Inverse folding.
């Protein structure tokens, strides 16, 4: 007798449809991995305004942290399309947590299966991002900066600099999706006119359709997520088995004391409490004494 597939098992997605809550063209990088790995067709929740869950440019603040916002966005898309499978991505940008002088992008990609009650997520800290901003006055020499942030293949946002006003209040002029030198000159002129100091705040536009670098990161995340969804839990068979945490404590090669280096990976299930510890992929069993708090204090 053949055991029935568990409800929500990876095989049971074949031929299904998954809603994608986006108005920023993310289907361009998500459709293929989901179709190739899971035989799932991505259906864009069109006409659905993901900006109601907040915007990068701060006209509307995010109501929750990025992980939770991403889950809510997936659910909102599912409500809009009437599908019981949903997908959403959410990015946030700022200083790198370990190297604060560098900018980093934090990206979530979340899959929701409401029939099986599953939320399967992948997260990536992307060190390669063009995220940046600067204050300028029209006529400033900004060619080097424009090159660094990838303009014009990567779009910009401009707004008048108004120091007394909260940048998130949304009251002022805001020009998004600037993609060519003429558009930039026009935006600089209008925003400078509207600024009490004649200065303009230029920012990188981080929306996926305006930012090929970010779209590439979302593509990488899509491959990670479909691999996780396709991997069944060894205990209960539900989809979504994968890495949940890296465990520090690799013993020092000289004295054997635990260090801050990674000792093992903890894998877990999206449905049940089952977890397994796996050794490091590179097989390393001891840490360099240079990383040891006793040998190299
Ligand atoms: Zn040591
Ligand atoms: Zn399980």
């Amino acid at each position: 007798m053949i055991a029935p597939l568990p409800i929500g098992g990876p095989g049971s997605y074949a031929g299904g449809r998954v809603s994608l809550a986006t108005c920023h063209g993310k289907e361009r990088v998500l459709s293929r991995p989901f179709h190739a790995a899971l035989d799932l067709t991505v259906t864009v929740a069109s006409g659905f305004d993901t900006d109601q869950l907040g915007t990068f440019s701060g006209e509307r603040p995010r109501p929750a942290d990025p992980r939770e916002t991403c889950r809510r966005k997936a659910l909102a898309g599912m409500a809009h399309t009437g599908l019981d499978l949903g997908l959403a991505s959410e990015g946030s940008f700022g200083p790198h947590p370990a190297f604060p002088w560098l900018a980093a992008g934090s990206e979530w990609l979340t899959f929701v299966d409401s029939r099986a009650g599953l939320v399967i997520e992948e997260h990536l800290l992307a060190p390669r991002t063009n995220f940046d901003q600067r204050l300028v006055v029209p006529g400033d020499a900004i060619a080097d900066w424009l090159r660094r942030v990838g303009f014009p293949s990567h779009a910009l946002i401009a707004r008048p600099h108004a120091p007394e006003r909260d940048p998130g209040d949304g009251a002022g002029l805001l020009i998004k999706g600037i993609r060519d030198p003429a558009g930039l000159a026009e935006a600089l002129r209008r925003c400078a006119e509207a600024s009490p100091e004649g200065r303009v705040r230029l920012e990188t536009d981080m929306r996926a359709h305006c930012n090929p670098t970010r779209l590439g990161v979302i593509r990488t995340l899509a491959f990670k997520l479909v691999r996780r969804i396709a991997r069944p839990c060894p205990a209960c068979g539900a989809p979504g088995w994968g890495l949940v945490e890296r465990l520090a404590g690799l013993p020092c090669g000289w004295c054997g004391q635990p260090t801050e280096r990674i000792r093992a990976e903890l894998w877990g299930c999206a449905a049940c409490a089952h977890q397994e510890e796996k050794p490091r992929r590179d097989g390393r069993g001891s840490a360099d004494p240079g990383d040891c708090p006793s040998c190299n204090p």
Summary: Helices lie at 27-38, 66-81, 143-148, 181-194, 212-230. Residues 233, 235-236, 238, 269, 271-272, 274 surround zinc ion (ligand 2) (CB under 6 Å).
